[in-house]
Amino acid sequence: MSWEKEVEEIERRRALARRMGGEEAVARQHSRGRLSVRERIDTLLDAGSFREEGPLAGHAEVDDAGRLRDFTPANYVLGQGLIAGRPVVVGGEDFTLRGGSPSPAGLRKSVYAEELALRRRVPLLRLLEGGGGSVTGSGGKRASRPVGDPVFATPRFESIARILELAPVASAALGAVAGFPAARLAASHFSVMTRSTSQMLIGGPALVERALGERLDKDELGGARVHLRSGVVDNGADDEAAALDQMRRFLSYLPTNVFRLPPRADCDDDPGRCDPALLSIVPRDRRKVYDMRKLAAKVVDTHSFFEMTRDYGRSQVTALARLAGRPVGVWANDPRIYGGSMDAAGAQKVTRFIDLCDTFHLPIVAFVDEPGFMIGAASEASGTIRHGVQTILRGVRTTVPWVSVQVRKAFGVAAAAHFGPRGHVLAWPSAESGALPVEGGVAVAFRRELAAADDPEALRERLEEELARARTPFPRAEGFGVHDLIDPRRTRPLLCDWLEQQAPRLHERVAARVARGLPD
């Protein structure tokens, strides 16, 4: 007597689970320009590497004789796989069933996602599309289990917090995301959303209208235009394929977990390359701006500059990149936005970025052109000084290697954020430092003289030019205020050499992390 009959039922249930919500539901998903969750997983992972967890979780309907009539799978797909040969955990809501709102088995699988990544000590990738709980409960109008979690239950957010301390977490909003999935999107090291097919909502249009009387559609409430500017989401993508590609690229700069170093990539870009364009990229006229992203891209490995959170805190640039194949975090000022001044949003953005680099052993390369904290009524009202000081305090507590290249300005209290503890400091001939920018300093120090002058503008211009000439970087180099004053063309070779020297320090850092282990 064999178990062939039971094995046949196993396979039948597997087949029913793979059809998800059925052909019509999948077709509707495609008609909206969205993939099914299984298609997303197949696109994201290395071909054939997905190993599903709980493929038979769901709800079975049987007849009086116990024979299977139908099977509805859990509407959360979870498993392990590979990206570029490295292990990951991936999970996502199945929108073809219940619009992604969790079924009982689906909820259990989604809660297990962080736990599985913790056990395997690997990155977690979330493919989000769906809502949170419903007033009818996860089982429908009738409660299918006791109301609420037991008093002894582990807080659901505990595993979410722990995985962020252990391994990279990347999430994508690929449709409407609300409730608990929205919280998961925010609880990520990197997040991306499709520009035309996704929204992130704390509460949907019906709830907002009922509570606040505001009539807005999903895009007006929480579309990509909203959340790329709010900073909730790091990057936007034109379609799902591009979003998934960004997730893969983000992971390529990061280690599998905090007990390992980031992987070094093959590099055919000469570490000794000197780009002649760097000699003139910063205008001699201090009133003219330049393209900081172009500058940074000429220094790091070709095509390795991967920017994050561009539309939030726009005066600050944060990106991942490589130098001679080694991953680094790049932080720079954008002089085209507020002259590069740090505002409240920029400070919060940078603090989060420093956290990422310090957690995952990414040396920080800072290209400095900081005129100081943003001033004005709006800046005061947004609490810029509080957020800016938090950035400084986070920076001085970093233990990852840090190199600062002073490209132009380094003024005021805000400048302190750009120079890490025991960091290496290089300066370009265009560098200038001080308590205030020349323009602001003249307006303050010579206020009475300017008011009494026959031609205040001419006097102002003459004073600014005199003070600017006095701010040459040579005295600072003579006083050993920088490690070196350099030819801008030599920036890449010097940074690559510096990074090579930091290799033992990075290995020691990881060894200390292994010895210390994770908190209980």
- Quote the average pLDDT: 90
Overall geometric form? elongated
CATH topology of the largest domain: 2-enoyl-CoA Hydratase, Chain A, domain 1
Number of helices: 19
**How many domains make up the coordinates?**
3
- Low-pLDDT runs: none
Number of strands: 18
* Structural class determined from secondary elements: alpha/beta
> CATH homologous superfamily of the largest domain - what is it?
2-enoyl-CoA Hydratase, Chain A, domain 1
- End-to-end Cα distance, whole Å, is 49 Å
- Regarding quaternary structure, what we see is single chain
CATH architecture of the largest domain: Alpha-Beta Complex
The CATH class name of the largest domain reads Alpha Beta
Characterization of this structure:
By secondary structure, this protein is an alpha/beta fold. The protein folds into 3 domains: 4-252, 2-enoyl-CoA Hydratase, Chain A, domain 1; 276-431 and 473-513, 2-enoyl-CoA Hydratase, Chain A, domain 1; 435-471, no CATH class. Helices cover 39% and strands 20% of the residues. The strands form 3 sheets. Strands 1, 4, 5, 6, 7, 8, 9 and 10 form an 8-stranded mixed β-sheet that branches. A hairpin with a 2-residue loop joins β12 (316-323) and β13. α4 runs parallel beside α5 (156-166) and α15 crosses α17 (456-470). The two termini are 49 Å apart.
